[in-house]
Amino acid sequence: MSGVRPTRAARVGRAVVVAVALLWSLGPVLYGVLLSVRPYGEVVRDPLGLPSELDLSAFTTAMRDEADGGFGLGRFVLNSLGVAVGTVALSILVCVLGAYAAARLRYRGRALTNGIILAVYLFPGIVLAVPKFVILSRLGLTDTLVGLLIVYVAATVPVALYMMRNFFLALPQSVEEAAIMDGCSLGQLLVRVVLPIAIPGVVATAIYVFMIAWNEYFYALLFLVQHRDLWTAPLGIAQLGDFQVPVTVLLAGSIAVTVPVVIVFFLAQRYIVSGLVQGAER
Amino acid sequence: MHRRIRSSAVVVALTAAATLLAACGPSAEQEGPAEAITFWTPQSTPERVAAQEAVAARFTEETGIEVDVVPLAAADQDQALVTGAASGEVPDVILAGASQITSWQAQGLLDTDVVQEAMDTLDPATFNENALGAVTVQTDGQSTVAAVPSDGWVHLIAYRTDLLEEAGVEVPTSVAELAEAATTVEDELGITGIALGTQSGTASGTEGIESIFQSAGCELVSDGEVTIDSSECTEAAGYFKELRDSSVAGDYDVESARAAYMAGDAAMLLFSTHILDELANLDEAVPPSCEQCADEPAFLAENSDFITVLDESHPAQFGATLAYAVPARANADEARQYIEFVMGEGYADTLAVATEGRLPLRTGTPENPTEFLDAWGGLGFGPKVESSVAEVYGDDLVTAMGEGMAAVSRWGQGTPDATLAGLVATQGTLAQQLDPLYRGTDPAEVTQQMAAEVTALQQDQ
Amino acid sequence: MTARPATRARPTTAAQRANRSGWLLVSPSLAVVALVVLLPFALVVVFGFSEIRLVDIPYLGTEPIVWTLDNFRQAAASQAFWGALWTTVLYAGLTAVGSLAVGLALALALRRPFPGRGLVRALLLVPYVLPVVAAATIWKTALNPQYGVVNAFGRAYLGWDTPVGFLSTTTADVWGVPVPVALLVVVLFDIWKSAPLAFLFLTARLQSVPGEIEEAAALDGANRRQALRFILLPQLRAVALLLLLLRFIWSFQTFDDVYLLTEGAGSTQVMAIQVYTELVTKADIGSAAAFGLLMSLILCVLLVGYVLLSRRTDES
C-alpha cells in the first residue's frame, strides 16, 4: 500500500493536521454541549468559563410539555420520528424497485427516466414550495404530517435510488441468473433472491434517508408553522429561537435532536459511505 | 421511440395536472349555520394565548361561533398567509402589524368591505386618528381602510428625576435638548446619559435611528422622494452621535440598554411601554438590579418619570400598531362579529392580555370618548397582574400615554412609501451607516450615503 | 458481465418483457417525482409567465390565464435580482472551492493508515450529519456579541475593543482591507457542513489509486511532493470537478443555512432568500416564480457546460 515512506516531519505534520481537523469539526459541537449544561446566567456572566457543575435542567425544560412549563420538544421529537420512519419505509419501497430497474434492466427510456429523477436537483426547493403546497392542499394533505412525508419521499428518491443502484451493481449477477433459469418471476426474484443479499445496502440507504428526513427544516416551516402540535423537532427548535427562550435551553434541544441521528449514522457509517462513494472510485 | 416516450410522458403529466386543477375550483360559498373561525395572533406566549382564549370563549358563549386561537409570530403569519391564500385555506381574522397589512392589501389578499362594515358599526370617530391613518391604503386616489386598529405600543423616554436633578439638567423637550442633557449627565455624574439601541447594523440600531430621527422632524421619504439627506436628518444624525457618545459602556442593543437603566447605570432610557411593569418590579424575569433596589424594590418606579411626546412641534413617536385584518374569502360575517366583539365588549379583556404592550387605539365609545383609555389605566399589568398603571404611576401618565399613542408614527405609514420604509427597516439599511458616523464621518456625508442606499432599494421595487 | 450480450441477443419478447418490467419498477419513483417536482414546476412556469396573483391560484383552471413577460422584465430591471445573483455566485463559488480544499487536505492527511484512523474519519463526518437547525443554533450562540465564545475570546485575548456582530456586519476593515464579514461567516458555515462529503469522495478515489504507480515513481526518484503533484492529483481531477459542480449547484440554492444564521442581514441576501422575500414579505408569487425560474435556468446552463466539458475530456 504505502510505497513512499513518510518522513518524520510528514508524520508530525499529519498529526497537526488531524488535530486541527478534529478541533474544527467537533469544536462547535463540544461548545454546544458545554453550554447546554451550564445555567444561563453563568453563561452570560462568564462566556469563556467551563461548567462548574452538571446542570441538566435545560434538557428537561426543553423536552417537557408546555403544560408542565417546558417547551414541548418531546412531542416534536415524536412527530419527527413518525415522519422520518414513514419517509424511510415509503422511500425504500419505491427506490428498491426503481434502483433494481436502473441497475439490471435494459429497458427503453431508461436514460430519460434517470434524467428526470436527477433533474430534481436543478429546481431549488424554495421555488417549488408554493405549488407543492397548492397540490398537496388540493389532496387535503397540508395540515397533516402525511403531506410532509410525501415531500420528503420525493426529496430523498434521487439519492436513495443512486445509493441502492450502487449496491445492486456490486451484487454478483450469477445468483439472479440462476434464479431466472429456475423460472422465478420478477417479484419472486426481488423478494426472495435480491433483497436478502442486499440487506446491508438497504439498511444503509434507509439510515441515510432517515437522516435527511430527520434534519429537514424548510418544508416543515412552510407546511406546519400554524399547527404547533405537528411541529417537527428542527422546526420546534428554530421557532423557539423567537420566543426569548434561554440560549442554554435552545442548545440543549439542539444537542438532544442531534444525538439520535449521530448514533444511528455511526452504527451504519461504513455501509453508508460505501453506498455514497462507489461511483467515485472509477 | 424516444420521441414517443417523451410525448406520452408529457401527455401523462398534462392529464394529471388537468385533473388536479379541474377538481379544485373553490367550493361554493355556503350560507347557513355560523362557521367556526380561525384567529391568528402574534401574542404568542402561553399566558397570553390562554387570556385570548378566555376572551374567545366569552364570544362563543354569546354567538355560538367557535374560535380557534392560533399563536403565530409576524414572520410566520406572512408565510402562512401566502401558502394559505394560494391553496384557498385562509384564517378568518388576523391580528397583524400595519406594515404587514399594507403589503397584503397591495396583493389583494384582504377583504376590506367587511372591515368597512365593522368600522361603520364601531364609528371611526372613536378611533385614534393616527392609527387609522397607518392602516389606510391609498390606491389610485382612493383610500381604503384595510384593517381595524386595535392596540399598540409606543416609545417613551424614562428618566431618573433624582439623577437629572443631581446633574442640574432640565427635562428635555426636543432632540437637541435631549442630546445636551445626556452629554451633561455623562460629564457631571460619570454614568451613561441615555441608554438606547445604538449597535451598528442591528435591529436595535434601526429602531433607535427611526425613533430619534423622527422626533427631530426627519422623514425617510416623502411623496416617493428620498429625503433622508435633508438638513433635519443630518442634524438628527449629529444628535444621534451625541446620544451614543453619552454612553460609558459602548454601544447598546435594546436589551443591554434596558439592563443599564435597570441597574441604575443610566440616567435616561429610550424604550417601549413594555418597560413600565419591569421598572415597578412586576416582572420576575427582569428585576431591577440597582444598588438602592435591593432594599427598595420600587425605587426605580418612584424615581422615574416619562416623556411620552418628546418634541411637541414634531409629535412623532416610534411605535407599533396592531390591527384586525380579514383575508379575502374568509368567513366574513363571523369574522366581523368577532372583531366587533373584541373591539367592544371584550376590548378591555383583550388589552389586559399584555397591558403594558397593548395601549388602546379605540379610545372610547361615541357616548364616552375616553372609556377604553380609562379602563386601560385600571387594568393590572405585568405578568403577575397585581397593580394597575394608574395605581403605580398615577392618572396623568395614563393621559400622557394616550397622547403618546396619538403621536405614533412610522416612516411612510399610510402612503405608498410604506413598502420602501418597511424594506429599509427589515434590511437595516440605515443602521449599516452608523459605524462610519461613530468613527467621525461628517453627518452630512453619512446621510448622503444613507440616501444613496435607500434610493438603490427604491429602484428595485 | 456475461449476461449483457446475452440479453441483447434474446428474441424480442425478452426485450419487451425487460421493457415492461423496467417501466413497472420505475413507475412509483416517477410518480412521486411527477407529483412533487414536475407538476409543481409546470405550475411555477404558469405563475412566472402570467399575471396570476396569489389570491387567483385557487381559481386556476377555471379562469383563462393572462400570459405576460412582465415578471421577467421586472426581475431583469431590478438591482435586487442582480445583487442577489452576484452574492449567490460569490457564496456558492467560495463554498465549492473551500469545501473541496478542506476535503482534499483531510483526505491527503488521512490517506495512510495510523492507529485510530477509522474513528477520526467517522468523527470528521459529524458536521455533515448534524441537523442544520442545531448547527446554526450553535454557531449563532458562539458568534453572539454578548455572550458568544468568539467575541469573549477576542476581547479577552486578541484586544478587540468592541464585540463584532459577525452575522449582521456587511463589511469591516481588517488591516485596511474591507472584508465581507457576514458573507464569509455563512460561507465558513457551509464549508464546515459540506467539506466532510468532499473528504469522503476524495478518500474513496485515493484508495483506488494503485500503490504500484507511486512505488514506481519513488524508484524513479520522485520525491513526495512530485508524487503528489504528478501522480495523485491528476487522478483526482475528474472527481474534484464533479464535486465542485455539485457543491456549487447545492450552495447556489441554499436557503436553510443563510436563513437560519442571518435571515439575509449583513448583505447575505442570496437568491433563495430573495425569492423568499418576494414570496413571503411582498406576497408576490409572479416575481418569486420568475426569480426562481431564472435560478433554474442558470443551473441548467452550468450543467450542460459541465457535460460538454467532460465529454470533450473523455474523447481526448
Fold and architecture overview:
The complex is a heterotrimer of chains A (282), B (461) and C (316). By secondary structure, chain A is mostly helical. Chain A has helices spanning 8-36, 40-45, 57-63, 73-104, 110-119, 125-138, 145-170, 173-181, 186-215, 218-224, 233-240, 247-267, 269-277. Chain C has a two-stranded antiparallel ribbon with strand order 1-2. Chain C starts with a helix and ends with a helix. Mean pLDDT of chain C is 82; it is low at 1-10. Classes of the chains: A mainly alpha (282), B alpha+beta (461), C mainly alpha (316). Chains in contact: A-B, A-C, B-C.
Key attributes of the depicted protein:
heterotrimer; A: 282 residues; mainly alpha; 13 helices; 0% strand; B: 461 residues; alpha+beta; 9-stranded mixed β-sheet; two-stranded antiparallel sheet; 21 helices; 13 strands; disordered N terminus
Low-confidence stretches of chain B: 1-15, 21-31
Major sheet attributes of chain A: none
**How confident is the prediction overall: mean pLDDT of chain B?**
85
- CA-to-CA gap between the ends of chain B? 48 Å
What characterizes the major β-sheet of chain B?
9 strands, mixed
* Tally of DSSP helical segments of chain B: 21
Please state the CA-atom Rg of chain B, rounded to the nearest Å.
25 Å
Order of helices and strands of chain A: HHHHHHHHHHHHH
Q: What value does the Rg of chain A take, in angstroms?
A: 23 Å
Query: What share of the residues of chain B lie within helices?
Result: 40-55%
Helix content of chain A: over 70%
Portion of residues in beta strands of chain A equals: under 5%
Secondary-structure content class of chain B: alpha+beta
Helical segment tally of chain A? 13
Query: In percent terms, what proportion of residues of chain B is strand?
Result: 5-15%
Average predicted local confidence, pLDDT of chain A: 82
Say how many strands of chain A there are: 0
Gross morphology of chain A: globular
Largest interface (C-beta under 8 Å): A-C, 98 and 112 residues
**What structural class do the secondary elements of chain A suggest?**
mainly alpha
Poorly predicted sequence stretches spanning 5 or more consecutive residues of chain A? none
